[in-house]
Structures are given as structure tokens and as C-alpha cells.
Design goal:
Layout (H helix, E strand, L loop, with lengths): L4 E5 L4 H6 L1 H7 L7 E5 L2 H10 L7 E4 L4 H11 L5 E5 L5 E3 L11 H15 L3 E4 L5 H4 L5 E2 L9 E5 L10 H5 L5 H13 L3 E3 L3 E3 L12 H18 L4 E5 L5 E5 L6 E5 L2 E5 L2 H22 L1
Parallel strand pairs: 1-2, 1-4, 2-3, 6-9
Antiparallel strand pairs: 4-8, 5-10, 6-8, 7-9, 11-12, 13-14
């Protein structure tokens, strides 16, 4: 039995989508009736309709252009409570080999497990480690509940389209740059918990020049500006860091969940609600002020 939908936003990458993510899902025996692909306009629809293998997916849907706006479209497309699994269109490989929980398990098992754990822990978002390199994953905690970066290329949410606090206001206004960082912060502020499976990795090509949201060079300046906006809007939750290649990032602080666990998957204590309320109110005021400045 399946209880989730797979959503694949894609832009100008029909061939890649077919050969990468859709092929991956097919090889992992994911039911094609669960798979929905979202494109920007009628022209894109016609192109994808010609290229995509019809046995790989259920429905091709015309949404809107821009990743942050497209995600918002998808949230509003589905009902409250729907389990939505987001995948980028260029995923080559998934690696479960370092995980004691998921070694020799299926992709379907992982997805269902992720959503089940969300229900158990009062989380509404889950994801996997953002880097494929096994060196960085092998000694990580299997599951974390603190503030962590949930990469937009592979994550699941329990849909809440009407909650304003989790809408990516900054990314929507600024072409989607660092929208997944903003998502991570907003969900943590709202719920006090984020689930991430830190020993599972995936292989993709970041900053692909074909389609998507731009090449590396095209994104350097917008990413720098996005990092500054995040620092201004969420100063308590991270700091700007600059890579050797001059790419600006907003590195999240390791802030503990408002929930405490005695062992994996069992909640034993919830911190006082006042902690969560103070954090939400402070961030709400900061976000409100920065939004005014951006207008």
C-alpha cells in the first residue's frame, strides 16, 4: 500500500528527467501512478509529452515557472495532509549502503518510513544527507531531529498549504535562490523539529547549465544576495560562509529540537511551549521587518 505522491518539478530538461530520475524510480519499482511531473507552460508540456516514457509516470501537469513558485503551486494542488515526496529531475543514484536502518531496503520502504517517523515525532518534513560522498556520511548519526539543511532535491512533507509561516516569502520574491534553506528554517521554527536520515546519499549534478535554475556562474551573484537576505531575516539560525569557489552559503546552526528522545523514535519529553513560542515570535517579527525592506 502506498500513502504518498512523488512530485518532480522540471524545467527544460525533458531528456534528463526521463533518463535520470524517472529511470531511477522505474528501476526501484516505484508505482508509476504515484509520479507527477510539473512543468512551466504549454510549450514545455508539449516537449515533455513527446520525450518522456509514458510508462514512467502518471500525469504531466502545467504549473508555473520558477522553483519556489512551482513548489507553492504543488502544495496548493494537493489536499491538506497529503504526503508529498519531492525529487529533482536529475537524480542518478541513491546510496543506502552506510545506513543500518535502510541497508538492503527499498526506496518505497525509505519513503514510507520517513513519513511514518514524521507522524511519530510531530515533524512535517524529512530529508536525506545533502552530499553523496560516503566519507561525510559514514559516521553520522543515523537520524537527526535538530535544525538541519533539507536539500530540495530529495525531501518529503506532510502538506499544509494554508500555513503562512512555512511559505518561502524570500525565495518566491527572488527567483528561488536558496529556497530549500529557507524551507528548512521555516519548518523548524514552525514545528521545532526536522527529520534527516544522515547516512543516505544521492548523486546529482548541482548547478547544471541545462535548464533548472541556472549554471554555477549564473548563480554566484544571486546566491550571495540570497545568503545576505537569510542572515538578515533569520540571524538566530545561521551564518554566511564563503566557499573557495566564491559561492556564498547560509550555514545553519545546530539548534536542538524542542523534543527530547530517550532513544531512536521515542519521544520522552517536550520542552516547554514557551521556548517554541518565543522563537516563533522573534523570527516572525524579524521576517516581517525584512519583508518590508524587500518591497
Amino acid at each position: 500500500m502506498y500513502n504518498y505522491i512523488i512530485c518532480i518539478p522540471s524545467y527544460k530538461r525533458a531528456k534528463m528527467c526521463n533518463e535520470k530520475t524517472l529511470d531511477l524510480l522505474y528501476k526501484n519499482k516505484i508505482n508509476n501512478q504515484l509520479i507527477y511531473i510539473y512543468v512551466a507552460n504549454q510549450e514545455e508540456y508539449d516537449e515533455y509529452n513527446k520525450i518522456l516514457n509514458k510508462n514512467f509516470y502518471n500525469k504531466l501537469i502545467i504549473g508555473v515557472k520558477g522553483i519556489a513558485l512551482q513548489r507553492e503551486f504543488i502544495y496548493n494542488y494537493w489536499p491538506v495532509g497529503q504526503h508529498l515526496m519531492f525529487l529533482d529531475d536529475d537524480i542518478n543514484k541513491l546510496d543506502f549502503s552506510l545506513s543500518n536502518l535502510f541497508k538492503n531496503k527499498t526506496l518505497n520502504y525509505l519513503i514510507k518510513y520517513g513519513f511514518n517517523e514524521c507522524k511519530k515525532t510531530n515533524a512535517y518534513i524529512w530529508g536525506i544527507y545533502p552530499v553523496y560522498n560516503p566519507f561525510f556520511r559514514k559516521n553520522k548519526q543515523e537520524i537527526s531531529t535538530s535544525l538541519k539543511f533539507i536539500i530540495g532535491a530529495f525531501y518529503g512533507v506532510i502538506n499544509r498549504p494554508h500555513i503562512k509561516n512555512i511559505k518561502n516569502i524570500m525565495a518566491i520574491k527572488h527567483n528561488g535562490q536558496k529556497e530549500d534553506v529557507e524551507t528548512s528554517i521555516r519548518y523548524f521554527i514552525e514545528d521545532g523539529i526536522i527529520l534527516r536520515f544522515n547516512r543516505i546519499g544521492f548523486l546529482t549534478k548541482y548547478y547544471n547549465s541545462q535548464g533548472g535554475i541556472g549554471s554555477f556562474q549564473q548563480r554566484l551573484k544571486p546566491m550571495k544576495e540570497a545568503a545576505k537576505r537569510l542572515k538578515a531575516g533569520f540571524p538566530m539560525y545561521g551564518n554566511i560562509s564563503i566557499r573557495k569557489n566564491n559561492m556564498h552559503e547560509f550555514k545553519l546552526k545546530n539548534i536542538p529540537s524542542i523534543y527530547k528522545f530517550s532513544h531512536l523514535n521515542n519521544i520522552t519529553k517536550k520542552y516547554k511551549n514557551i521556548t517554541k513560542n518565543i522563537t516563533k515570535n522573534i523570527t516572525k517579527n524579524i521576517t516581517k521587518n525584512i519583508t518590508k525592506k524587500l518591497r
